Amino acid sequence: MEVEVKLRLPDSAAHRKVLSLLSPFHTKTHHQRNSFYDGAAGELSSRRAVLRLRFYENCQPSKCFICLKAKAVIVDGVSRVEEDEEEVDFEVGLQCLEDATKLVDVDSRVARRAHEEFGVKAGFVGLGGFRNVRNVYEWNGVKLEVDETVYDFGTCYEIECESSEPEKVKGMIEEFLKENEIEYSYSQVSKFATFRSGKLPQ
């Protein structure tokens, strides 16, 4: 179970201010491309699950991870989701990006779970995806991730932090934002849910 704090920033100005304030704690920047898949007969979505390929395009060597996510719930800015992830060959990932039917041939424990546990029998279909720029910070003993997520219909900004003590960490981040007069709100939906809705959260 992955547990994350998710706080939404209202606009690019707030995002830039957060990046500036956190700059002394910056460790890396990821340029991610995310592509999502369902079973051809909707086997994953019918059970509140989705398969994701995530490409890290600015690292050497480039990397790709396959991830099965299920039963996501977000309450008061804290997300809980069942997640299983592993790395796959980058070139194999690119082939699947071009042709979703090739996912059935990927040598992957995660892909096999989709077949065996979720009953994906007739292959996979691509749902599309989005890009994300993730700045990572080591701040006050936690790892903060500040995201700029670019959809076809607009851009969202968000602070995330995975933690076994989400309420404590949420309080730390909220205090930081309030002290610096940065507006924010609790994220209500996941990035994938925003993508599927075709509109930015209000």
Summarize the helices and strands and which ones pair or pack.
Blueprint: E1 2-9, H1 12-22, E2 26-39, E3 49-56, E4 63-75, E5 78-88, H2 90-98, H3 109-116, E6 124-139, E7 142-151, E8 154-162, H4 166-179, E9 185-186, H5 191-197
Antiparallel strand pairs: 1-5, 1-8, 1-9, 2-3, 2-6, 3-4, 4-5, 6-7, 7-8
Protein described:
The protein has 202 residues and is of the alpha+beta class. Helices cover 24% and strands 45% of the residues. The chain has five helices and nine strands, in the order E-H-E-E-E-E-H-H-E-E-E-H-E-H. It has an eight-stranded antiparallel barrel, surrounded by five helices. The longest helix has 14 residues. The radius of gyration is 17 Å and the shape is globular. The two termini are 28 Å apart. The mean pLDDT is 95.
